[in-house]
Design goal:
The chain is mainly β. The protein is built from four helices and 22 strands. The chain starts with a helix and ends with a strand.
Length: 338
Amino acid sequence: MFDTDILRARGIPASVATHFQTASLFPPGINYPNLVVNGKPHGIVSVTFNDQGALCANVNFLKAAGILTKQPEGPEQAQQSTCHSLPAGTEVKLQPGRQRVELLVPPQLVDNSAPETVYVSGGSAALLNYNLYATGNHSRHNRSHTFYGHTESGFNADNWVVRSYDSYSGHGNKAQFHHQSAWVQRTFPAFKSTLQAGQLTLNSSLFSSSAFNGLQARPESALLKKTDNGVRVTGIAPSAARVEVRQGGTLIYSTLVPAGPFVLDNLPLNNASQDLEVSVIESSGGQRHFIVPAASFSSNFVPVQQGWTVAAGQPRETGRCANVSARPAPSVTSPSSY
């Protein structure tokens, strides 16, 4: 219940009480909530709600949600203002307090081949990955020490990525430093491509090439549509549920589905020889499990690389090492790694 006198005193129309008294609703008009489809965030989208608080699924909303529908006919402006019905079985959960709209859509009606468009650009960061290994051998007449290290270092700044790969090895009083490669790159989402410069290797699935110094423009796989690998999982969810797919005990895919039949396509397999273990976990806690045999996979597909790779440069030698003088390493009694 709302005190309409207080609303009027604060300059708020009394009709607001009628709008919000039945359920948590977004205010009428255009709102900008976070959209989540089957548990997957789709970023902030423009959503229109009518006077009754119902969501208007126009063409832009369906496209942002990745819902497969027939392309409507007519002028573009009319398409954007027309509200369409969501697919049968779709569940809508409005959370105005969190500025969030959640959809549970049958997976077969969601375009999973569409590239991910929710990403963050800009910012800066430093990176250092290392792998160290040291051993020592002590005896009455002999002492030996061996050390090996591999590092990946670099930084990100203003959408540019800089990386350097180096290794260091030592045995006794002798040590060697080996610089493997260094490069700089930037991804251009509008062209779905990445430009690289420096000490590179050719990005090609058809031709082998030695390392080279130069430039390379290649497709960015994360921004391209994925090719269908012919793997399909079908099932029925008694109620709204989470579906988990494992292969060899490893979780390879997870999604939320509404009640009813579901179809999962183009799953990211670890290999084509192990069965898939599918679990349907309901919100009430009930679980159902079944197996999809590997014999059902269409494993005779060949992934096709989309786009063009263009490179120019000159061959580079990669076997040179720089000798570094070193003092005897401290005693190490057992192998260790970090």
